[in-house]
Amino acid sequence: MDNKDLERVLLEGSQQVQSGAPCEIEVQGRRFKVKQITQKVGLKISNLEKEILVLEREAKGEITLKRAKQIDKKMYTLHSKTAAYYLLGNWALFVPFLWALTWRWLFRKTNEVTFRINDAGANNKDVNFLLANWQVTKARLALSTMLVGNGIKQYQERMESAENMLEEDALPKKEDNK
């Protein structure tokens, strides 16, 4: 990834976050305000998303009907919790009781409500900056290790050259018998 690509990724991510948060969406005649989230809330959402992935992998295997129902309910719960984080922002951390009421209220709503909130929140959250930071880190790492990689390559070439020289020196020399 060169500098132009890196700048493009950073610019796109920052423009998307600046233009998107906070935003208001309307679902089933009700308006919801999806807020910009902090890193701590983003971490909690990320943990919920990882839990959903684990449950989806478990659901792909052979499971009983009872376990399938438990997984579905847990996934709906996790989607509701994620939507509650997007609606409340930092208030979810400072007033846990409010967050608990909100996600339970969202759990009783239709899937369309949680889907629209999660979709709007995913477009707004600082993940774009997180990904941009990760891209910067990868680019810096690639640049720093490139020199190391070239140095190791040159060292290996010198070692091979030295070994070849030693092998040539170890060969019996033809003696001139005059």
Describe the structure.
With 178 residues, the chain is mainly α. It folds into two domains: 1-20 and 127-170; 22-124, no CATH class. It is 78% helix and 6% strand. It is built from seven helices and two strands; from the N terminus they run αββαααααα. The chain has helices at 3-20, 39-60, 65-88, 91-94, 96-107, 111-124, 127-170; strands at residues 23-27, 30-34. It has a two-stranded antiparallel ribbon. Strand 1 (23-27) and strand 2 (30-34) form a beta hairpin. Helix 1 (3-20) packs antiparallel against helix 7 (127-170) and helix 3 (65-88) crosses helix 6 (111-124).
The total number of structural domains is 2
Unreliably modeled segments: none
Structural class assignment: mainly alpha
* Spatial strand sequence of the major β-sheet: 1-2
Total DSSP helices: 7
Q: Tell me how many strands there are.
A: 2
What's the average pLDDT? Answer: 77
The secondary-structure element order is: HEEHHHHHH
* Radius of gyration over all CA atoms, rounded: 28 Å
N-C termini distance: 66 Å
Helix fraction bin: over 70%
Instruction: Report the major sheet.
Output: 2 strands, antiparallel
Strand content: 5-15%
Shape assignment: elongated
Layout: helices, strands, pairs:
Elements: H1 3-20, E1 23-27, E2 30-34, H2 39-60, H3 65-88, H4 91-94, H5 96-107, H6 111-124, H7 127-170
Helix pairs in contact: 1-7, 2-3, 3-5, 3-6
